[in-house]
Amino acid sequence: MSPSIHIDPARHVAPVDPRIYSGFTEHMGRCIYGGIYDPDNVNGLVDTNGFRTDVLDALKELKVPVVRYPGGNFVSSYRWQDGIGPRENRPRRPELAWLTEESNQFGTDEFIQWCRLLGAEPYICLNMGTGTLEDALAWLEYCNSSANTHYANLRRKNGHADPYGVKYWSLGNEVWGPWQVGQMNAEDYSKKAYQWAKALRLLDPSIQVISCGETGFADWDRITLKTLAPVVDMHSIHLYTVSQGNHDVNVMGPAAAEKGIEISKALIELAKIEAGIDKEITVCFDEWNVWDPVRAPGEKGAEEHYDLSDALAVASWLNVFVRKADVVKMACIAQSVNVISPIITSPTGLFKQTTYYPLHLFATLMQGTSLSLHISAPDPESDTYTGPTVPTFVANLAKHTPPASLPTKWIDISGVLSPSGQEIRVALVNRHKTTAWDVPIIFGPNAEVGSKVTVHEVWSADLGERNGFTEGEKVRTVVREEEWKGVYHAKAHSFQVLVFTLV
Ligand code: AHR
């Protein structure tokens, strides 16, 4: 029996924060060099700064509101002062996260300038590995201070009179991970991060400080939130999902992220009660994606070549963020270019991966107010996933796995009331490999929709279809209008955003 969807436009969850469609650029593989910055490009693809204009255009289409930088694991041995000032004086350094060399030809000033061109807000992750609090304060002063002090004057000397006003600063990256330079236990991290947050806020009280969490369902999250709740605005969590060669596992994986968000929300509430504080602390899911590091190792640049199954997984990820709009206020896809990314460049151009298209549809259409949709499950045999354990993969070594079984359905949905209040948009993934469903969509009690629905569909008959330089963009959005008679025919393994007009 087919599942049915019930939509009441009065059942608001929360406004969808546009920052859930944010990006992440790390000094890793070809993300920065050869991705966003390609000064030696001889094919007319760069501006006078050496920035790839085709990449900027593709990211502008995604309306990326915030970009996290410069890592990731990279930041934990990064000396930010190597990356400013005249380029010929910038030192080359050994790089300990991905075991390469860092030329420092792209640094803080270039990143800010690139963000301005993109129209995105910069978000800086601080080095809590080899970096000191003094370095962190100097970085903040360099970026944000208008005072007559050393680092603010150094910024001016480098040609940037006005402060950058970088609003988002996070306290280290995956400090819990054995792969991290400067790994700490939760207690040591919390003590240190508390003092950093305090000092950073003294220098610039206007910033938003973000704690380094784990998956949201780890003990690390509980312990760090308990200490850091009074001094942070957001708690960052990370998760990557992976197919293990199995489509069902691939598309159901984001259920682990949803569980992590729910647990984080509860841990935030608990920490606030224990600290006796009443302020907003939200979740910043600042690394997420489909990534199999065996297939695409970080040391080799992590260039995943995604197929349609991965695009459906990415759509399921984004449904999670829209459904959890009450607590997830920022999410950064890892990463924005080349490295586990929806965009792949070559010296002569770029192509958009299958995963680009769901991201684009969400960023452009799934804005407004998140609605609490109901999807019926009359027959668990037919519409609820009962396959292998829902997987999780936390980069490199997972210490914690989510509960073995999570409730998941073949039809995965989220919905919004558009910013104008005139449309209802439903993002619907039919995750089933072979079964198409005729899905009744019932509006009410006091809502009626027009006689047509606009369908923005991402689909191919071949679930393994990929886009590429030679293949072209076989998987992309196709838009059509259909007569609306109350039932939507969702093809097997398809993603679509349905746009209904309220009448
Ligand atoms: O995004 C790739 C890497 O995954 C990041 O550097 C790190 O934070 C995570 O382990």
Automatic annotation (TrEMBL):
<comment type="pathway">
    <text>Glycan metabolism; L-arabinan degradation.</text>
</comment>
<keyword id="KW-0119">Carbohydrate metabolism</keyword>
<dbReference type="InterPro" id="IPR013780">
    <property type="entry name" value="Glyco_hydro_b"/>
</dbReference>
<keyword id="KW-0378">Hydrolase</keyword>
<dbReference type="InterPro" id="IPR017853">
    <property type="entry name" value="GH"/>
</dbReference>
<dbReference type="GO" id="GO:0046556">
    <property type="term" value="F:alpha-L-arabinofuranosidase activity"/>
</dbReference>
<comment type="similarity">
    <text>Belongs to the glycosyl hydrolase 51 family.</text>
</comment>
<protein>
    <recommendedName>
        <fullName>non-reducing end alpha-L-arabinofuranosidase</fullName>
        <ecNumber>3.2.1.55</ecNumber>
    </recommendedName>
</protein>
<keyword id="KW-0326">Glycosidase</keyword>
<dbReference type="GO" id="GO:0000272">
    <property type="term" value="P:polysaccharide catabolic process"/>
</dbReference>
<dbReference type="Pfam" id="PF06964">
    <property type="entry name" value="Alpha-L-AF_C"/>
</dbReference>
<dbReference type="GO" id="GO:0046373">
    <property type="term" value="P:L-arabinose metabolic process"/>
</dbReference>
<dbReference type="Pfam" id="PF22848">
    <property type="entry name" value="ASD1_dom"/>
</dbReference>
<dbReference type="InterPro" id="IPR010720">
    <property type="entry name" value="Alpha-L-AF_C"/>
</dbReference>
<dbReference type="InterPro" id="IPR055235">
    <property type="entry name" value="ASD1_cat"/>
</dbReference>
<feature type="domain" description="Alpha-L-arabinofuranosidase C-terminal">
    <location>
        <begin position="286"/>
        <end position="494"/>
    </location>
</feature>
<comment type="function">
    <text>Alpha-L-arabinofuranosidase involved in the degradation of arabinoxylan, a major component of plant hemicellulose. Acts only on small linear 1,5-alpha-linked L-arabinofuranosyl oligosaccharides.</text>
</comment>
